[in-house]
Amino acid sequence: MSKPSYVILPEAYYKLFFHAAKHPHQPVNGVFLGTQNGVEGAVIIQDTVPLLHHWTSLSPMMEIGLDLATQHAQTSGLKVVGYYQGCERVDDTSLAPVGEKVASRIRTGFEDAVAFVIDGQKIGTSEVALVPYHPLAATSTWRPVSGEPLPFTPGSKFQLSSADSPSEAARYVQDQNLHFAFGDFDDHLEDVTIDWLRNRTCLP
């Protein structure tokens, strides 16, 4: 069965960018919320919910954060449709074992789930700083999407709804420091006033 196409809206891209920019030397992860029109229809990634920035395993905090993000998606009329992570090293774009586990768990609730690893070498540029991963059929093993056309190029099943999202996200960080207003579930555990599920204060 062929995979659907995936379209990332600006708000979702900004938030994952802010997450990586706020914790440049730490691993970060989170989930994508979105919708899908019918079977094999396009998956529209509308929002991002950031989870953690100092995780090493599928911890109780990860489990709780994922459950709360799923509940938030349901009350918003959305689904958890994907997972993302950023690695400590800027040149590392491999999906960690914990990432595979979380992505596979998401897949049990959404068959066309996708995972992305943030490309630290492209953060801050006009290029899309994401490497998409798909699961191997009927397994919990995930591999980078390969073949032509390359992701986020013309004709690819992976697209941004606005090609300016990467450069705009970088500008919001460099000129307005919006990433400092951004919080994930880790931050919320330290300060319960941080609205990690919505992060409205960091949006332009």
UniProtKB/TrEMBL annotation:
Pfam families: UPF0172. This is MPN domain-containing protein. Belongs to the EMC8/EMC9 family. Residues 6-137 form the MPN domain. It comes from the Eukaryota. InterPro entries: EMC8/9, MPN. It comes from Psilocybe cyanescens. GO terms for cellular component: EMC complex. PANTHER family: ER MEMBRANE PROTEIN COMPLEX, ER MEMBRANE PROTEIN COMPLEX SUBUNIT 8_9 HOMOLOG.
